[in-house]
Task: inverse folding
């Protein structure tokens, strides 16, 4: 089948105009960090939001508890084609955001096959659901700067070659290219946002920023005496998750589907993260942080730094939160929680 343009639909500039029907968005991964911020953003814009949740023996609504009375929660799993097709068929959404994934890099070495099933093949299952049940939907794929891995140029932009360094990164490369391929093969409005690290007080506890902010809070409250970390020299481009979900939305409002890199353009080491986080609590990080080889990765991504110039120009997107503001916000939130 040759590529066909299929990009009809109402003008998408924010809240629906009077007399226009409410727009519907499906979010996979709505219980995750980004899913919770995106659901807030879309509800504020007047969307009907359908959140896809996989079945577990206990609920995972910690991040979206405050939104539950305004969300439609539907069950489906990235591993199950039929459940995904049913969600798309029933919701007939204007927009689908695929945020669900096995997203923790170290786990991708211990569970590489499952990571491939969720993070790579999950994408094509959802694209098939859209192609077969509702091809008018606009599709956002949560691609990652981990795809640049052992980066061949710095800063990294849309044209930088991929060199993934973990099974997670490899799976994301598949998700990226299958999104491009469905756009080119079937004319779907499918875009890939290549997002650099973004964090918040809702970040999972195992990621380094939250591990540090939570560690600081536990040390301050006398629950812990030291914090064990891996590579302190690793450099990342860290931004605030609330800013990044706005970029996702902006990508789906363009007349044509285009992929973008999103990041702050600033790079910091894990060591600097520790300095700011412990310093904010009046502590000297060197007295508490210990390097533990158990947290060093089999293959490391040494540095990531975004060139988000294209997003700045074409989407009008800019980060609003500095690195120091992000870190202190996370430490304050954890100090409040760990009482
Ligand atoms: P997260 O907090 O780990 O959330 C992942 C979400 O995926 C959770 O809602 C999880 O549900 C869901 N999920 C996992 N496996 C699933 C399955 N088999 N079926 C249905 N749902 C499943 O991740 P995040 O930080 O919000 O990131 C969102 C997306 O952006 C991910 O795809 C991630 O890889 C990508 N990304 C993140 C960053 C970043 O810095 N945060 C940067 C680039 C790309 P449960 O609650 O049930 O576990
Ligand atoms: O916080 P991290 O685990 O994030 P990582 O591996 O960069 O991945 C995150 O960002 C990606 C975007 O580039 C997403 F796609 C992915 O889903 C995830 O959200 O580790 C950041 C850096 C690494 O270099 C790691 O080696 O921190 C270093 N680090 C040092 N000590 C540590 C630790 N990371 C963790 N998680 N725990 C440590 O003790």
Result:
């Amino acid at each position: 089948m040759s590529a066909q343009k299929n990009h009809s639909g109402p003008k998408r500039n924010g809240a629906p105009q009077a007399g226009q029907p409410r727009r519907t968005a499906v979010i996979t991964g709505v219980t995750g960090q980004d899913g919770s911020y995106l659901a807030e953003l879309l509800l504020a814009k007047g969307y009907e939001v359908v959140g896809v949740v996989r079945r577990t023996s206990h609920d995972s609504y910690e991040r979206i508890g405050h939104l539950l009375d305004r969300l439609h929660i539907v069950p489906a799993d990235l591993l199950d084609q039929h459940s995904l097709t049913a969600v798309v068929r029933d919701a007939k959404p204007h927009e689908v955001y695929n945020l669900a994934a096995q997203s923790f890099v170290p786990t991708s070495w211990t569970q590489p096959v499952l990571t491939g099933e969720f993070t790579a093949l999950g994408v094509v299952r959802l694209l098939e659901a859209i192609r077969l049940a509702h091809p008018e939907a606009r599709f956002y794929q949560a691609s990652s700067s981990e795809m640049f891995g052992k980066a061949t140029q710095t800063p990294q932009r849309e044209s930088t070659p991929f060199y993934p360094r973990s099974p997670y990164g490899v799976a994301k490369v598949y998700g990226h290219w299958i999104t491009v391929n469905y756009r080119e093969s079937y004319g779907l409005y499918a875009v890939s946002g290549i997002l650099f690290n973004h964090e918040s007080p809702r970040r999972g506890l195992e990621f380094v920023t939250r591990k540090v902010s939570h560690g600081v809070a536990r040390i301050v409250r006398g629950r812990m005496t030291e914090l064990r970390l891996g590579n302190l020299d690793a450099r990342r481009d860290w931004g605030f998750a609330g800013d990044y979900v706005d970029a996702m939305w902006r990508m789906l409002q363009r007349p044509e589907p285009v992929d973008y890199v999103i990041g702050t353009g600033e790079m910091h080491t894990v060591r600097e993260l520790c300095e700011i986080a412990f310093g904010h609590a009046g502590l000297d990080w060197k007295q508490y942080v210990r390097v533990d080889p158990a947290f060093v990765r089999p293959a490391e991504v040494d540095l990531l730094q975004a060139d988000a110039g294209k997003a700045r120009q074409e989407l009008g997107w800019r980060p609003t939160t500095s690195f120091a503001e992000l870190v202190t916000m996370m430490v304050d939130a954890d100090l409040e929680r760990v009482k």
DSSP finds ten helices and 13 strands in the chain.
